[in-house]
Design brief:
With about 375 residues, this protein is an alpha/beta fold. It folds into two domains: about 5-165 and about 360-380, Rossmann fold; about 175-360, Glycogen Phosphorylase B (Rossmann fold, 3-Layer(aba) Sandwich). The protein contains 15 helices and 13 strands. The chain has helices spanning about 20-30, 65-80, 90-100, 120-135, 145-150, 175-185, 205-215, 220, 235-245, 265-270, 290-300, 310-315, 330-340, 345-360, 365-380, and strands at about 5-10, 35-40, 60, 85, 105-110, 140, 160, 195-200, 225-230, 250-255, 270-275, 300-305, 320-325. A seven-stranded parallel β-sheet has the order 3-2-1-4-5-6-7, sandwiched between helices. Strands 10-9-8-11-12-13 form a six-stranded parallel β-sheet, with helices on both faces. Helix 3 links the parallel strand 4 (about 85) and strand 5. It is globular. This is Glycosyltransferase family 4 protein. It holds the Pfam family Glycos_transf_1. It is an enzyme of class 2 (transferase).
Length: about 375
Amino acid sequence: MKQRVCMVSFDYPPLEGGISRLCAAIVDDLLLRKHPVEVVSRQTSAEQVAFQAPKTPEYRVASKRFRADWQLFKRLRKYHRDDIVITGVWYPEALIAWLAGCRYIAVLAHGNDIMHGQPTLKNRLLSWARKYVFKRAKIVIANSHYTGNLVKAQTDTPVAVATLGVDEQRFTPRSNKEVARIRERLGFPQDSFIALTTSRIQAYKGHDIVLAAIRDLPIETREKMRYVIAGRGEHLANLTVMAEDYGIMPQVIFLGFVDEADLADLYACVDAFVMCTREEAGAKQVEGFGLVFLEAQASGTLAIGTRQGGIVDAIDEQNGGFLIDRDDVVALSARLGDLIDHPEKVKQQSELARQRVEQSTTWRHYGDRVNQILEQYFGNS
């Protein structure tokens, strides 16, 4: 590519979040390749700082939405109409880029941002606008094959898949002594098999499937494990009642909110990361990829997920993780029981998980994939 790249994303460091991380990863990779990059994002408050942005020229528009949109329009129209513009999402960033006259637009697509949802007037208008924006983009870059198929059903614009990566230096395995110290600090039993789910506690995340699977374990097996539920959300009270009704409260630890700084330790001190997310198309709820699965695997922790959305790209069956069908309590219970009774399988899959990340799913690998796509579609621009 000959021309400058402009990354446009209102979700960008120092803000935390999946979109912020992947936009930063793209910028980092372009900078490593000595390619000129400017970032246009939104102002953030000091309280929201999570991690540092790559060192490249930035322009920050206002934090308030409509003022931010207007300032973004003016900035793009004046300085970036002939640049390659990569947008974090299709709305509002890609729409504004097109309105500003940008000629070379690449749109990142993630999953629930491109779902149709219920056939309400608002969703119909959004679907129409999304198709209009996609038609005027040069390429849409999807985070998984699932997301790519969603986009392909909505546009004739070329769609390419760049599966995500993870920060393998931040999320890394710990020694046995370190694991023991972390468990002591968190109040986890040292000799138990510990399964973890960390996410916002919403019904579609499938915590209830894990609780039901634990209920169905033989008593002697169940007593060897703990299930840690980390996070907050509207479904928490329901899970508490469910655990009590199932008679498994001694096995469940409701950890509450986990600070971002403690997340890597949490992943590394457990035996398995489990999240049984469901695709709820009408509510626009899905794991477009499931970055948490990679974060766990990078930490040397095997991952268990459902064959829903983009999770099938985040977990490679029998290579650091396992997949079950949606709501399959029987399969999950059998899998957990087998792992609890066979620690050597946990060790084997945990080692494979880390190896897989190092070999193919770091942010550098993601940057390579995106760069190949950009070269293919903008190499002569």
